[in-house]
Amino acid sequence: MSENNEGQQMPEVGHAPRVARSASSQPLIGEDQVQAHEGASSPASGGVKVREKRRGGAPRARRMSLSLTRIDAWSAAKVAFMLSIAGGIIQIVAVAILWGMLNMVGVFDQVTQIVSSTGLDAGGFDLTNVFSLSTVLSTATIFSIVEVVLITVLVVILTLLYNVVSTLVGGIHVTLGDD
């Protein structure tokens, strides 16, 4: 007896379980792998229930050959938009941390001193005022917004191009296996 989703007992059907086979109708694993699998699945304690042998021998690996022939442009746009938003936030936080570290080490003050010592100081040049935290973060935010729009548009264009090309060549073929 087996149970369905509600936990009710259902009688088992007398059909053998489906076994994946290769294109030549041969099992996907060899006899040595069958013996190794049987030896590895033996329980160490007597209380553990051993999987019953399937009809026709040992369990077989399942493989399925699939083709990615079409990508939904709207779905790709949503994923690209969310990932580029996350990338933009990471970029803004990284710029803020980098600015804080450069300010803490004193890079801005040292560059200002170097410019002053060369005589190029025309009117009280102060690099900290030019590259203030608010200016740097505003620039990084604007750059991130532009990146979000560009990445989203490019992903939609690439998705549409993939759909056109996959109608010509059949898409990307993938073989999935169950180990």
TrEMBL record:
The chain crosses the membrane at residues 79-102, 136-162. InterPro entries: DUF3566_TM. Keywords: Membrane, Transmembrane, Transmembrane helix. The keyword Ribosomal protein does not apply. Residues 62-178 form the DUF3566 domain. Residues 1-58 are annotated as: Disordered. The keyword Membrane applies. It comes from the Bacteria. It holds the Pfam family DUF3566. This is DUF3566 domain-containing protein. The lineage of its organism: Bacteria, Bacillati, Actinomycetota, Actinomycetes, Bifidobacteriales.
